[in-house]
Amino acid sequence: EGLDLRILSPIEATKFSVERIRRGEDTISVTGNVLRDYLTDLFPILELGTSAKMLSVVPLMNGGGLFETGAGGSAPKHVEQLVDENHLRWDSLGEFMALAESLRHEQQRGNARAGVLGDALDKATERLLDENLSPSRKVGEIDTRGSHLAIARFWADELAKQTDDAELAAAFAPVAEAFEAEGDAIAQALIDLQGSGVDLGGYYRPDAEKAEAVMRPVAAYNEILAKLA
Prior knowledge:
Elements: H1 10-22, H2 33-48, E1 56-59, E2 65-68, H3 75-85, H4 93-107, H5 112-130, H6 144-161, H7 166-192, H8 208-215, H9 219-226
Antiparallel strand pairs: 1-2
Helix pairs in contact: 4-5, 5-6, 6-7, 7-9
């Protein structure tokens, strides 16, 4: 009673579904990938202005999950700017959110530590947004590497401060302290190295050592991360 059941072509079904959604009416549509792209890509991107700041979570029937996000632009253009100017503008914000959701998914399987890691990452992501430390499109400003430095600093700090897992707090305390002491200098170094072209040793299959040298160019940063090895 009260149900409106229709069998329409994919195009008409999508139009009809969107009209109902605009009116705020509950709608179940079997429209394949067409409407899925509207719900998980088009609408969030229109609202937020970028694909990198949205996350689509799809629960799977057997208990798994899909976590989908974007990079905030065209990957070929990102790589082109990196090669020409040593500035990478790939925005990993959605990846940070997806990782936190993945950790919470693992928590549901009985891994309490994964939940602590996920909660701390969410707090770190909030700080990243509050301080506007997503990558800029302009050379001489924060890029992907600087944004990853920021999330690493904030995540380590949140893990060191939390009281749910003393072992994790103890493990990340020296990392957080090192970032507090050297983080600003590392962030500036990641900006100062921009402006000249880099050699990745290939496009579809870059040289691993050359790519690592480009993506991890500051020794002090690498030494801090090595504390977790």
